[in-house]
Amino acid sequence: MESDSYLTLKAFSQGLYKEKGSKFIGLVYPVSTQEEIKDILDKIRKQYHDARHHCFAWVLGMDKQNFRINDDGEPSGTAGKPILGQISAFGLTNVLIVVIRYFGGKLLGVSGLINAYRSAAKSAINNGEIVERFIQDFYKISFPYPVLNDVMKIIKDEEINQSGQEFELECCISINFRRSSGARILKRFSRIEGLKFKLIANG
User: Fold this and answer.
1) Which residues make Cβ contacts (< 8 Å) with residue 111, sequence separation at least 6?
2) Same domain for 45 and 11?
3) What is the CATH number of the domain that holds 172?
4) Which helix (H) or strand (E) segment is 109 a member of?
5) Boundaries of domain holding 24
6) CA 156, CA 73: separation in Å to the nearest integer?
7) In this structure, are 152 and 112 located in the same domain?
8) 0.85 cut: is pTM over it?
9) Distance between CA atoms of 189 and 197, rounded to whole angstroms?
C-alpha cells in the first residue's frame, strides 16, 4: 500500500557555516506550494540584499519528483545540488532550503564550495525538528438526523477530525482523516442508510 506519511521540518530553522572568511547562513522552511516558495525567496532576497549569493533547493510532494535547485551565480553544481543532497539524505519533502553566502575575499574552490553549502544546509536541518506528517482526505458527509448517533459513533471510534457541522433535518459534517484509513472509514459510513459523502480536498 502506498504510504500516506512523509518527513518534513516542523518549523523554520537556521544554521551557519564559516570557511576562510566566508559566511554561509542556512535557512530551512516547511512549505507546501511553489507560490509559498516564491514569496519566501522574494523576502529573503530583500532581507539579505547585501549577500553575494542566495542559493537554494526545494522539494515538494510525496514522490519527491517536484524539485528545483539554483546556484545563483556560483559554479554549476557547487551550491544547489549539495543543498538538495541534504534534503534527500534526511528523507525530507515539502521543504525549502536557502543558503546565503557573504563572501570573505578568499576563493574556496569547487570542493570547498560543495562542502560549505552542504554543511550550511545540514546545520539548518539539524537545528530544526523533523516531524512525520500524514496526507489527509477532507470529506463532507450529509445524512438524516435519525442516524446521527450512528455517525457520531464512527467519528469517535475512528478518531476523525471535525471542522464544521449543521444538525437539522438534514445534517452535514465536514471531516478529515488519514488517507490510509479512508477505505475502512468510508465502508463503515456507506452502511448507514441515507448517508452521502463527497471528497472536498486532500493534502
Assistant:
1) none
2) yes
3) 3.30.70.240
4) helix 109-126
5) 5-133
6) 55
7) no
8) no
9) 8
Q: Is residue 17 left, alpha or beta, with left meaning phi > 0 and alpha meaning psi from -120 to 50?
A: beta
Residues 6+ apart with CB under 8 A from 138: 163, 174, 175, 176, 199, 200, 201, 202
The C-alpha cell of 159 is what? 478518531
In this predicted model, what pLDDT tens digit does every residue of 93-122 receive, in sequence order?
999 999 999 998 888 999 999 999 999 999
Percent of the chain with pLDDT over 70: 99
Same domain, 39 and 50: yes
Together in a domain, 115 and 139? no
Could you report the per-residue pLDDT of 23-44, keeping only the tens digit for each?
999 999 999 999 999 999 999 9
Number of domains observed in the structure of the chain: 2
Under the banding of pLDDT at 50, 70 and 90, the label for residue 152 is very high
